[in-house]
Amino acid sequence: MKIGIITYFYFYNYGTMLQGFATQLLFGKKKGIDAELIDYRFGTKIAPRKIEILKIRLKRILIYLKEVKRIYLTGKYASLMAHRRDFFDEFVSKYLNLSPQKYMYENEVAEDVPQYDIYITGSDQTFSPKIGFSQALFLNFARKSAIKAAYAPSLGVSSLTEEQAAFIGQELKKYDFLSCRESLGSEMLEKITGRKVETVLDPTLMIHSDDWVQFSVKPNIKGKYILCYFLGDRDYYRAYVAQLSKQTGLPVYYIPVSWKDFKKSNNLLWEVGPSEFLGLIANAEYVCTDSFHGTVFSVNFHREVRVFVKHAGNVAGGDNSRLFDILERLGIEEQLITEYTKGSIIEDSHIDYSHVDELLSAEREKSMRYVESIVNSVK
């Protein structure tokens, strides 16, 4: 049996690449199944003309003036960020099982359809209107006679416009199996489709920590440390980290993404691909992050994780809901820190992973039943 998975996986983002790999592992470990990622890179053929780029820059000149520091630091460290891509490319060549055909543009997938018994829209924000709908992610190219399923896609929003809901509802009619990564997303899809939508685990949590270790690289850091992986620019969680370091006496290391962390004094770790990312989390004493996948890998490796929100406002809604949902389902929503006053003493608390593992085991069993129902649907 051949399974083809379409998802975001090649954007030089740790969570994006690892969730794609995890989906491949999840379906591929079933006996007699060849699961591969459809090598679609989401290219765009329409490039803006130079005059259009100039007009955009002129309109943004006041914004640029206000953000001189961000622009300067981003440019200063651009070559180091670019070098990081080599580690991602190495991971792909070593571990990912890609389709023989490589597609840059959406029309190419429809013109040269990859042949599978089951087509799966993979995890991450594949159904998100914020990123922009791609019809390929809704399997518009798939053979009509094949099984079509969604495994743990995320909407990434707490509400949809009528137009967005109508588009999603129409596209999902072709699916034989529907699921979502978040409870709120499942409820929204059920209202749109009138069908039962399973809430399943992100595929990275379906792969046990012992298995992830096989693909990790142990960091060259002596002693205990605090690891920071921040995507957002908010100051409150950086103040929290400074206090945590002061109270524990542990050094802080950063996987730098946000310009706010581009400081030599921050122990910046540039040469980090997916394997190094796994190793850094697995061996950290504390992990501080505002990333969904930074959070779930920390939980998988039983780390003391402190989770922060990139956006102010409703914690249980919008982009923040991804973090709140998984922490609540695993009984550790108190690890979500929504505010912090600089210099305040941090209470010393530890996660009870025996309880987390009980809840995680139940979630894994439910999600695996969904996976098996997809696989067993092919006669």
Describe the structure.
With 379 residues, the chain is α/β, with parallel strands linked by helices. It is 41% helix and 13% strand. It has 15 helices and twelve strands. The chain has helices at 14-28, 50-59, 61-66, 68-76, 78-95, 106-111, 162-171, 183-193, 203-206, 209-213, 236-248, 274-282, 292-300, 321-329, 353-375, and strands at residues 2-6, 34-40, 98-103, 118-121, 147-150, 179-180, 198-199, 226-229, 252-254, 286-289, 304-308, 336-337. Strands 3-2-1-4-5 form a five-stranded parallel sheet. The chain has a five-stranded parallel sheet with strand order 9-8-10-11-12, sandwiched between helices. Strands 6-7 form a two-stranded parallel ribbon. Helix 14 links the parallel strand 11 and strand 12 (336-337). It is globular, with a radius of gyration of 21 Å. The mean pLDDT is 92.
